[in-house]
């Protein structure tokens, strides 16, 4: 059965990508709009830095690394979760999710890989070149351990992003409605493109614990740059690496719990 699933997954991805690329002109125009949108956000940070030399003790190349890291980790994690889990509410409301439960296939795997979102290409096209410039510009003595930490931190941040989105989407299996939680998610997510230490202590605590999105950006990047990390201190790097796998396990448990509470379209 496992081998069968592994053979089907690439087919699901290929079919969805073909459907997304049917109108290629519109697809790439949309990606350009994404680049311009996030580029304007980064330009706003640049305007702030033109008036003030630093932001929370972070200089321009360091903020560029933070912004690109946050955007890349989000785009990779959300490509595997956001659109698919956002649409889960509608599947539950209409009773369409019931049809997935009778398929000889994991409902989660079918949702994720049949809707793998290549629309995040624009995010990646902006984040990767900016990250390349920032990596060469920041004052970091790159070694094999620091490079491995950087790569592992991106993977962990990607997993953490996907895990949180999965848990939000899975809530629809219990409450039917869950998309309002995404508004809360993105409200906190927008804060994480800035250094954690510029926020009040209460927000810092929330961004590390209840909504741990700081662990996808300023905590791992700050640990790499040797910045003081509020609350976590010297444990920041280790916590950032562990957070992704740990929250994936939590998301798996929550997904199973939500499915056990699902009562079908009739409630």
From TrEMBL:
The name of this protein is ABC transporter permease
| Keyword Transmembrane helix included in the entry's annotation | yes
Lineage, top-rank taxon, reads: Bacteria
Q: Which keywords fit this entry according to its UniProt record?
A: Membrane, Transmembrane, Transmembrane helix
Q: Which InterPro entries match?
A: ABC-2_transporter-like
Transmembrane domains' residue ranges:
32-52, 64-83, 108-136, 148-176, 196-215, 235-255
Q: Which organism is it from?
A: Rhizobium fabae
Q: Name one Pfam family in it.
A: ABC2_membrane_6
